[in-house]
Structures are given as structure tokens and as C-alpha cells.
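Quick entry between incubations.
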Amino acid sequence: MNILLKGGRVLDPASGLDAERDIHIVDGRIEQVGPSLSVKNAELIPMKGKWVTPGLIDIHVHLREPGFEHKETIETGCQSAREGGFTAVCCMPNTNPAIDDESVARYVRQKGREVLGGIVDVYPIAAATKARKGEELAPIAELVEAGAVGLSDDGAPIANAEIMRRVLEYSSMFGIVVIQHAEEPTMTKGGCVHEGFVSTRAGLSGIPSVSEELCIARDLILLRYVPKAKYHVAHISTRGAIEMVREGKKKGLSVTAEVTPHHFTMTDEAVLTYDTNTKMNPPLRTKDDVEAVIEGLRDGTIDVIATDHAPHTIDEKEVEYTVAPFGIVGLETAVGLTLTRLVKPGILGPLQAIAKMTTNARAVVGLPQVKIEAGQPANITMIDPDETWTVEASRLRSKSKNTPFSGMTLTGRSIGIIHNAEMYRRTS
Amino acid sequence: MKLASRHLLQLEGMSKEELTLILDTARSFREVLERPIKKVPPLQGKTIANMFFESSTRTRLSFELAERRLSADVVSFTTAGSSVSKGETLKDTARNIEAMKIDMVVIRHASAGAPHFLSRVVEANIINAGDGQHEHPTQGLLDMHTLREKHGTLEGLRVCIVGDILHSRVARSNIHGLKTMGAEVSVCGPRPLMPREIERWGVKVYYRLEEVIPQVDALNVLRIQLERQKSGLFPSLREYHRYFGVTRDKTEKAERSLTIMHPGPINRDVELSADLADSEHSVILEQVTNGVAVRMAILYLLGTTGSAATSPEKGA
Amino acid sequence: MSANRLIDAAGMRRTVTRLAHEVIESNRGAEQLAVIGIRTRGEFLARRVAKLVEEIEGQPIPVGILDITLYRDDLRGRLDQPLLQSTDIIFDVTGKTLILVDDVLYTGRTIRSALNAIMDLGRPRSIQLLVLVDRGHRELPIKADYVGKSIPTSLAQEVQVRMVELDGEDAVYLSDAAGKEARS
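Done. Structure below.
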């Protein structure tokens, strides 16, 4: 590998660099970064008008392996990530068996290294409690040693207050983040869409916003009681929740939050079609909530954009709305949605947007930062901010095609990644 | 004038003209129902499947009768519980419908949106006979027809729907249909059984029956399900009856006579007292007859709409 | 479109009077006679015929209105759905001699529909057909018993009957309506 990325707009949130630079990469290492480099014998990749950013990371994906390989495997999930411009993913532990044992965590890490030449790093997020049942602590120390970068029962909340307190205490010894799927389960039984006027119209049982907010409120109280614990709110979706996180940060609590592209793009009105690709948990919320999400992204209350990539097969999704599983795939539409919905209208600057998928995200899960500097390993995502394209579910690389964005035209798309001495350039 | 859609999925979104067409057509079919021979031929050669994934003897009988009186070929099935529990998905069922060359499907399903799903995957006309807590459009139409025949017009008519609004598809269809036709609609029931933000439909919400009765021309009393009490939505049937049960002593306080409707089957002396159900106020049996006429109207209007492929023939 | 008036108001009055006389003559009176008009113009024609028979015979003649929409054989092919109106026949047709009345006899399909519709109402002793205009081009073996006027037409032409009750005048026009569908 001897390549020269020529004339791209380098966006490096870690250093704050936003300028046109050439980057010379040899065997996976950045040799030089500078304006107008001239290098002999290097393969020239013209990047004029394109973005060059640190490799993107998605800290919330479901790779489904082990246990649900019909939906996704580590390999197909990584293909999807690679296509979408991600050089790293953190995968959630709701597999079968759950990632609540060091052997499963090691398996996932190892498998990630083996597939696609290791171009996509796979970091397991381990279960906080055994079998994600919320009853007994998972072997957290062992899981950390096995490479887990976060703890979560995602798909389910850590609902029991006493257990949550102990998870926060125990995890704080290792500086590992606790990622909460915030939901008060006694209020959400049978619910499948946001509770409000739309659920009333659709005749579908509601998931009230207060169920998310109650859980976060409790956790923030616990967090104040357990200093040094790190707490992260997964897929935040309500105005009330965002306001609490904002207040928590002001008070100096160690709280961070992520939002999915669908929660800043769609409102609950979409469920009136009964398309099961509009069914996710947390549900699509109201226009007011989406506005709060946008404001939270702008003012930094929401640190991270993460997809909650949740593959389900067509047969699983093409059923009655009430019985369909929650979730949609997101890895391949994240960059397009972020640029189209946030950068293009000026809600976020390019550096800010990239930070939410690189530096901020890595900080949440405690991974070392990626820098675009001479001497550093090349971990790079290349983006064409002007490519206009139409999402086609059937063409997704993910094994599952459950996206509500099929047919939507987006502006901005990854054109390739470089990582672990491998380069991938999108062909179609 | 014809209906905008090939399907009857919901009353929400239908225009006043469309609803009027259906109600006028139903009126013509009421005349057919008075004839010695109650059978007419417009759906000859059409095959209609009644797919009831939730049992409902009345609605199914009413549809079957309507279909047979229009000379359609009819197949019906009822499965208790969801199709999923039987290992057959709704999509499989849909494929079977296609393979059997069914022209029209009447579907009752516990899941909201099931008829919408079906309408996307099969060619047949789909008629929603009740989907979960969403809508029950033919019930809404027959309620509207009954009120229109009784009171002459729906414009300005004041109707209160009483009971478990949250879980009621009948309430939703009534609200959409009646509002579109210019009626004033209110709802009354215990607050935990009120859907959120229901007032955004432009309906008044009451929590006391005594307050609303003097202000309306008709009460549409909903059936209360016992299992709602078990999930903590109201304390007991006794208390429900006492505060939300429509009884003679509560209606007598009204100055005028009220029209009392109920979609059936009635829990006598729970949501509605037996003497009122059988009184001169009650149009409950009228609703049953109108049900057949309204369903004939829907089947006729959807089943005889032409395609662009054939041109009209010359008559006379 | 050029329209040619074939019958004017006076002509129509004379024709209907003659038809009423023919009905009485051929039935030797008005015993068990009833008149059924096919919506829309057949209804008004039926009322006029019945009134004349009543005046001549001095006894009331029941009049019914038949809506044949449900019996049409072209119901499914049509883009434009005919509005279903009710049939209004309050007497029992069984045992009656029915005079079925329509304005124009053309393909015969409307009459076929009407006959089926009547059979579903009961069992009349006989049914006779009375039309104001017979324009030919039959597609079914149907023949009128009483014809006001036979008008030879081409398929491209249109026969338009106008009646005071609906159109403000009594007249029959023949027009060249190339490319236009005949009134059904």
C-alpha cells in the first residue's frame, strides 16, 4: 500500500484541523500530511471536494452473532459498516448466548479481527447483568479484560434500582461506561409506538415518553450518589430526557447521550402507514421531540450519533404491526442522513458532525483517539459530501433490509475507508 | 361519484361526499331488504372471503348475509387467537388468497393495520371488519346510517360515545365519520380509558355521564371488557356501572328523549341497563338491520367499480 | 353536434295518448293492469300513460318505479359507477298485467335487466313493453308491444328524449354524436 489522497478536505476533530491536505499512506501508516505533497510511485487518489475524516465509529449496533445469524453475522455486519463508512463498531450483547461471559466477548472480538481483513474493528459491549435479566451482575471484571468497552442490557433496561446502583459502583472501578436503554418497563407492556395523538389515531398501544424519562431521572439521581461512574444514555428520544441530560451535564455529572439518525429524521406520523419498518424502541417521537433532539445535537447535550443498527429479516418484519420486532438497520444510511438532515441545513458544522461519529463516540466507550497525523496508523473514512443518491433497501450490504428510508434521496455518502492496512472503496 | 379507494380500511380521511354516497346507497339497499326476494345479482360471480382472525359471530353473519344477498360466492373462516400462533403468517394467508383468486376480502384482525398490510400485498378489495383498537368502519357507518334515518340528518347532531374509548375501534370510526358529516361528538368514560390527546380530534371529553346526557341527542354505549379492570384501568364493574353505566335514572334527568345505540353484544346491567336496551329509546335492533344494508352498500360500491380496461356499454 | 327534432310537445302528447289507447284496447280494459316505469324518464312516461288510462277507464292504475342498476350487465366494466336508487313499487306484482315503460328501446339490455328485477319482486301474469322511441340495433331478442315512433338510426347517432318534468320541454331529438357514448 502506497497511496496519496490528493486535495481532500481533512476534517480532524481531535486537532480541529479543517483544511485541504494531501495524505501519503504507506502500508497502513500515515507518512505525511501537508498541502500539495508530491510523492513518487504512490497511487494517486483524487480527493478534491471530498472529505477525509478519522475512521467513523458506531457505538450502537446489533451484529446478531452468535445466535441470530439469519439476521446478521459479524461478517455481514462489518460489510455493512464498511459500506457505510465505519472503521469500528461496538456491538450490543443481546445475542444468544448474550455477551455476559468472557468467552463470548473474546469470540466476538476475534471474529471481528478475522473478517474482511480486519478493516472494521469490532468492540463488544457486554451485558451488565447475567443473561441481561437485570437480576445479578455479569462478571464485569472478566468482561473488561476480555475486551468489552461498555456495559449494557440493551434491548432491555437495567430496571431494578438496586441492581443499577451496583452496576454503576462495580463498573466505576474499571472506568467502563454503563449504557442504559432507558425505559420503565411497567409502563411499556404491549406498547409499540409513541403514546400520543398518533397512537390514538393508529389504535396502537403506546410507549409513553415518561417511561424513558423516569428511567433517566432515576439513573441521574443514582449517578450523583455513585461518583466516578460513567453513564451513557442510548438512543435518547424525548424532549424531557434531553433536558435532564443537559441539566445533569451542567451539574457536572458524568453523563453522555447518543441519538440515532431515525430519531432526528422521522416523527411518529410515519407509523400511520403501519409499515413495520417504522417500529423501533424507543419509538419514533413527536415533532416537538425531534426539535429537542436537533437542539440537543446543536448544543452538545447529545454527544454521539449512533445507529442502533438492528437487523431483522423480511419474514420477521413483514407481519402484523403489533407482532413485528423493533428496530431497523442503520449503518449504511447514517452518513447520508447526518449530512442531509444536520450538516446541509447548517444545524451542525462538518467538524461537529464528524466529532459525533468519531472523537465524542470514542470518548464515551474509552477508546484511544484516532488522529490524522504523520506517524499515526491510517484509520480514515472518505466521504463525498455532494453525492446525491437514493436509498434502495435491496442493495444494502447488511444481511437484513429493514429500513424505512428506502426510496429516500440523500446527499452525502461514504466513498471508502482505510484501516488496518486495508483500503475499501465503494464500487456501486 | 365513486369511492376514492378500492378498499375500505378506515373512515379517517374519507370525504363527506364519499360517506354520503355510502349512506345513500345503504338507504337503497334497505328497500331491497324489505322485498319478498331479498337477493339481487350485482356481485354474481365474485368470490368473497371472510377472514376472521378474531371471533365475532355477529359481524361475520352480517357480512355473509350482505354478500349472499348480492349474489356473491362466499367462503368464511374464523381462527381463534392470532395466525402467528398457528405458525401461519398473515403474508402466507395473503398468498393463499391470491392463489385462490378471491375478489374481495373481509378481514377482522386483532392487530391494528392488518387490513392495510393485506391491501399492500394482494390484488383483492380489502374491507376492514375491525382491526385491533384502530377502526371498525362498517360499524361506524351503520351507526351513522341509523342516526341519520332516525334524526334526518347528521349535521349538528350531538352524539356522545360512552365507555372504553381507548381500546375501542368502534369509537374511532364513529368519531371520524360523524365529525366529517358535521355532527358534534363527545366522549365520556373513566380517564384511564381515554386515549391521549383525543381532544385534538375536536371532541369534548366528559368524565361524568350526568353532565353530558342533557347535552346530547344520542348515546353510543360501548361494551366494557372485564380484562380492562384486571389491568388496573378501573376499579370494578360495580363501580363502573354506578358511574358510567347508562341507566334509566340517569337518562330520565335528560329533558328530551335520547337515542341509545350499542354495537353489541351488550353486557346487560353493566354498561347499559336491560330496561333501557329494550326501551323505545333503543335503536339497537335497527342497528343490526342497518348493518346488513350498509355492508351491502360497501360491497356493492367496491365490488362493481370498473377498471379502465373496459368501456361502458350502450344501454336502453 | 347537429340535433334534429323528430317529435315536438304536441307530437309527444298525441303519441302518448295513442299508446294509452292501444294498451286499453289490447288488454280489453284496465283490470289487473299496473304500470312500471324504468328510472329516470321511463318513470315520467309511465305516470303519463297511467293517468290517461285512469281517465279513460275511470279506475286507478298502480304506478311503480324500477331502478335496474343492480341488474345491469355492464356494472363491472364501468368507470363511472351509476348511483343506486331505490325501486319504488308498493303494490304486489304477482298476478298483475304489467306495462313496462321506458323512453328509448335500443340494445334491449336495459329491458332484460328490468325483466330480471321484476321477476325478483314476484310473478306477474304478463309483462308488456311500451316505449316512446324504438331506434333499432337490438342485441337481445326483445320486442316492444307498444311503440310511439320507430326511428331508423345509425350507431353513431344519439336519440335524446326530453321531458318537461326533468328537462323543461317535451321533445325527441336525433343528433350526430360522433365519438360520444350514447346515453345509457
